[in-house]
Amino acid sequence: MTLASEMDARPIRIDWRERADRLAEEIAAEAALHDSDDSFVAGAYERLKAEGFFKALVPVEFGGGGAEADEICHAIRRLGAACGSTALAAAMHSHLVAVAAWRWRHQGAPTEGLLKRVAAEDLVLVSSGGSDWLPGGGTAVKADGGFKVSARKPFSSGSPAGDLLSTSAIYHDPEAGPTVLHFAVSLTAPGVRILNTWRTLGMRGTGSHDIELAEVFIPDAAVAGRRPAGKWHMLFHVISMIAFALIYSAYVGVAEGARVRALAAARRKADDGHLAYLVGEMENAFAAAEVAWAEMVRIAVSGAPGPETTSRAMTFRTLVGRAAIETVEQAMEAAGGAAFYRDLGLERAFRDVQGARFHPLQEKPQLRYTGRVALGWDIDG
């Protein structure tokens, strides 16, 4: 094979940031409509699927886009500046794929089948992880050849367009005690029902409805992992290392969009002696968000999972959340009374960015965890 033919055989490198910029222009006009009527960002999801975003993080050898986590973090940030709901919902799918790809590549985990399906069938994955976290949720009762699972899973972002729910339930193992079973289940499986519950302060277009599982049969072969309930497990160190960089990219995007709108509004105002100070405070807050976010992204790309990496990733998760919220607050101050009107978009950004408070580990649990790591104490204590 000649050098020229070898080069021709290489996969084309996709510029995911450029695609995100193009999509952001298309979805920005729809963001306010979805916010006003609590409707899912279905059109944006169709565009994302057409551009290959849902299989972007699948390795090329499995038919995916071969994107790295940092590329999609940047893409989600750019989407977030246009529509926070689209960015956050897409991040929830993306982090599941990113974690599966990392585990296959670095741990030899049996995630190849899922990754190939995501690419071949263009599947959209839905996570219930934030609502379950370490304790797990729901019950799994042993049945012939598997388990019967009953549960209610809130915060299931992207569920109106989802194909597979990645979730867990607790099995009271007679020998091992309370054991969390991890599995994926089709959203069209018997006993699975999406409940129209998503009426919220912000991020109204994410379609993060509750999902009900009523004695849903999960075959033994579908159980992808088992762990003790309520204890830190290596899987959660991998999730902490990778997932939150993607998720908080959406909030940095919301803050960035608010900053741009505030600057445009402020430039139309007369200098009253205080305006530059207000803008300066906004700039400082956004700089803090960018610096902390960049460290989260670096950890996601090059970190090694474990208690210390989780502590650092979660510390920066808190710092990004604080700074993103402060950026939007200062953006409203800089824009003045115009920020109170929905048309400017700052009011929506203010509500959307509040979601940064609620993903695990929330600030107080993060402080406790980080303190215990620094002290050398048991993180499960």
- CATH homologous superfamily caption of the largest domain: Butyryl-CoA Dehydrogenase, subunit A, domain 3
Low-confidence segments, given as residue ranges, are: 1-10
From the N-terminal CA to the C-terminal CA, the straight-line distance is: 59 Å
CATH class descriptor name of the largest domain: Mainly Alpha
Number of domains: 3
Mean of pLDDT: 95
Based on Cα principal axes, name the global outline.
globular
Helix percentage range: 40-55%
- Following the backbone from N to C, one meets helices and strands in this order, namely HHHHHHEHEEEEEEEHHHHH
As a whole number of angstroms, the C-alpha radius of gyration is 21 Å
Structural class estimated from helices and strands: alpha+beta
Supply the number of helical segments: 12
- How many distinct beta strands? 8
Strand content: 15-25%
As for the CATH topology of the largest domain, it is: Butyryl-CoA Dehydrogenase, subunit A, domain 3
The CATH architecture designation of the largest domain is: Up-down Bundle
Major sheet characteristics: 8 strands, mixed
Give descriptors for this structure.
381 residues; alpha+beta; Butyryl-Coa Dehydrogenase, subunit A, domain 1; Butyryl-CoA Dehydrogenase, subunit A, domain 2; Butyryl-CoA Dehydrogenase, subunit A, domain 3; 3 domains; 53% helix
Summarize the model shown.
The chain is built from twelve helices and eight strands. It is of the alpha+beta class.
